[in-house]
Design a protein that fits this description.
It is a single chain. The protein is mostly helical and 607 residues long. The chain has 3 domains: 2-257 and 283-335, no CATH class; 361-463; 481-605. It is built from 24 helices and 6 strands. The chain has helices at 2-10, 21-32, 34-39, 55-67, 71-97, 99-111, 113-118, 125-145, 148-165, 173-183, 188-215, 232-246, 275-278, 282-295, 304-325, 339-357, 366-382, 390-410, 419-445, 460-463, 493-501, 515-525, 544-552, 574-583; strands at residues 481-485, 510-512, 530-531, 558-560, 585-587, 601-605.
């Protein structure tokens, strides 16, 4: 299973280029500056950070310092983290529910389409999932043994998850805490004391980087991307906290919501944008959770299988609620955090339902119903892309019908031997895994590239955002400029060449509105670039007064800002654009071999 997962995640991975250029640029900057490495700064001179904590960047950056910066140093940590998550999940489930359940759970996680897609990208979600699975493994060991050290380890792993993707890691905390409080061996007072100690570890392991950064004077560290005041605290509470839940305003005044994952509501996990990424076995997991709870209800309080249902059922419920009803920015690839819970409930629940099916008649109908619902939902998901392998949905229908008939027939008095049971299990696996397996396969082997906005299945080839780099950099040099106006994408090679030639002794090569523009220049030249508005182009990182200081000290000579009404990142602070047009000298496009309207941008020399 681990070999299959590695192949799915690593096949043709070199085609990813620089993957998500936003994070890749920060990794490259960190290889040239330990200060930029620690802060997770986008540029090597540390003007602004990315809008996430830096732990995922650290993994890529350390490998890049050993192997050199490139596709493999960016992507190999993702592949290894994805495979490790499958291995840890298998070990966790095997200890609680046996080998068959563990094998099914590991297989479902490995084949979950969005998990395959995100493990082939360099977003932080892959490492987050590994930390969370490790937290569940440690929590289960704590429940089983009653030893505090395992619970403290679980809290520390969640803290690492926080320093990977902030509050998204905390969604699982109630599930871990309730499972330990309900099922751990020690008495109630000790359990409560253990949880309080784990809470203290969670606070320290989560907040240490935030506290260190915010204690450093603002003039000695970069602006924290995504925040309104340049602090990590504001980023945690605002854009990456309440902003994700309630859709609060972003730093520039816009709303924090987005249509990437469809409208919020109870059906979001099943909609056209998200359903095919994560929900293939979600109905079965829900059914298995309910039925498993009834089947195991009378077991002892410390029974490990029952505790597992509490833990993974709570995980499923918490992330389903958080993702379904979040009004802020929500991407389908966030749902990879749901995948471990769905996988475990499918594995453990499948084995429980099979054992119940072989028992009293009153339970014999639950497994066939679960198979029928799973096959029907797979058909519905595949029917949303009628031109993509149309035969597959009918194979699943046939397998579903045959599986249900075989399960029913195997319960009849005249049925003898294991032939019908083996046939029913074979058809069940086809009905359950053919759909997500096909989505996973086309994601890995279909040649699509969705770097930066990971999607799986037939949408993958069309959803790439063009952020994968070609690995070719123009000649190294020194320059330093600011451009007013320009597209959301890359500056022209001619303009970048001009900037390199005319940088002089400036600290930064150029200032642009957004990190999307800055990233491409950083990756192609290796030179520091100021992204004045961060990822969205709206962060208040640069002010007119600050710009005047940079220019006065000779640290910046040129700038590019998007014009009003253009697509892509917002046009930036109009006061800055006004000051630049009044005090700067426009560089004609002819000076760098471009047309007057190339990119809609205006390049200005300052000072």
């Amino acid at each position: 299973m681990l070999s299959a997962a590695f192949v799915l995640y690593a096949w043709n991975l070199w085609s990813a280029g620089y993957a998500n250029s936003y994070y890749s640029a920060a990794v490259k900057s960190g290889t040239g500056s330990w200060k930029a490495f620690f802060f997770g700064a986008l540029d090597s001179e540390s003007f602004i950070t990315v809008d996430k904590p830096p732990m995922a960047l650290w993994a890529m950056g350390l490998l890049a310092r050993v192997l050199g910066f490139g596709t493999w140093s960016l992507m190999l940590p993702q592949v290894l983290a994805g495979v490790a998550a499958v291995a840890v999940l298998h070990a966790t489930v095997r200890r609680a529910a046996g080998f068959p359940a563990a094998l099914i759970a590991a297989g479902v996680l490995a084949l979950t389409p969005i998990t395959v897609a995100i493990n082939r990208d360099n977003n932080p979600d892959t490492l987050l999932v590994l930390w969370l699975v490790l937290a569940a493994w440690s929590c289960q060991r704590a429940i089983e043994s009653g030893r505090l050290r395992w619970l403290l380890a679980s809290a520390a792993f969640v803290g690492c998850g926080f320093n990977t993707k902030m509050l998204q890691a905390f969604v699982v905390v109630p599930a871990l805490a309730v499972a330990y409080l309900v099922a751990a061996r020690p008495g109630v007072p000790r359990r409560v004391g253990h949880l309080l100690a784990a809470g203290a570890v969670l606070v320290v392991s989560s907040s240490w980087w935030m506290v260190v950064v915010d204690l450093i004077p603002s003039e000695s560290r970069p602006f924290i991307g995504g925040s309104t005041d340049g602090t990590v605290r504001d980023l945690v509470i605002g854009f990456n906290g309440l902003g994700r839940i309630f859709g609060l305003e972003t730093p520039g005044g816009g709303r924090g919501g987005g249509g990437f994952g469809g409208a919020p509501g109870a059906g979001r996990m099943f909609n056209d944008m998200v359903g095919g990424q994560i929900s293939w076995l979600l109905p079965f997991a829900m059914l298995a959770l309910i039925a498993g709870g009834v089947l195991l209800w009378k077991r002892s309080r410390t029974d490990l299988a029952r505790a597992g249902l509490v833990l993974w059922g709570g995980w499923l419920a918490m992330y389903w609620a958080a993702f379904s009803f979040a009004k802020g920015v929500f991407h389908p690839y966030y749902t990879t955090s749901l995948a471990p819970a769905i996988a475990v409930l499918a594995g453990v629940g499948g084995v429980l339902l099979y054992d119940a099916y072989r028992g009293p008649v009153r339970w014999s109908w639950v497994l066939p119903v679960g198979v029928a619902v799973t096959g029907a939902w797979s058909f519905a998901l595949l029917n949303r892309t009628p031109d993509w392998n149309p035969w597959l949905r009918w194979v699943i229908v046939a397998a579903t019908v045959l599986a249900v008939l075989a399960l029913v027939a195997a319960r009849l008095p005249w049925a003898r031997g294991h032939g019908l049971v083996v046939a029913s299990m074979t058809f069940t696996l086809v009905a359950a895994l053919a759909g997500p397996g096909a989505y996973a396969a086309v994601t890995a082997f279909g040649g699509g590239n969705t770097s930066g906005n990971a999607l799986a299945g037939p949408y993958a080839a069309q959803a790439g955002n063009g952020q994968a780099g070609n690995g070719q950099a123009p000649p190294q040099g020194r320059g330093g400029m600011l451009v007013v106006g320009g597209p959301a994408g890359e500056l022209s090679d001619d303009m970048v060449g001009y900037l390199l030639k005319h940088r002089g002794g400036a600290r930064w090569l150029v200032a642009v509105v957004s990190a999307q523009q800055a990233s491409s220049i950083i990756l192609s030249t290796g030179e520091p670039v100021i992204a004045m508005g961060g990822f969205t182009g709206q962060d208040p990182a640069m002010t007119v007064a600050g710009l005047q200081e940079y220019v006065g000290r000779g640290e910046l000579r040129h700038i590019v800002i998007n014009g009003a009404g253009q697509s892509g990142p917002m046009s930036g602070d109009p006061a800055i654009a006004s000051w630049v047009r009044k005090n700067g000298t426009r560089v004609p496009a002819s000076a760098y071999g471009g047309r007057a309207d190339e990119g809609g941008g205006e390049l200005y020399r300052l000072g």
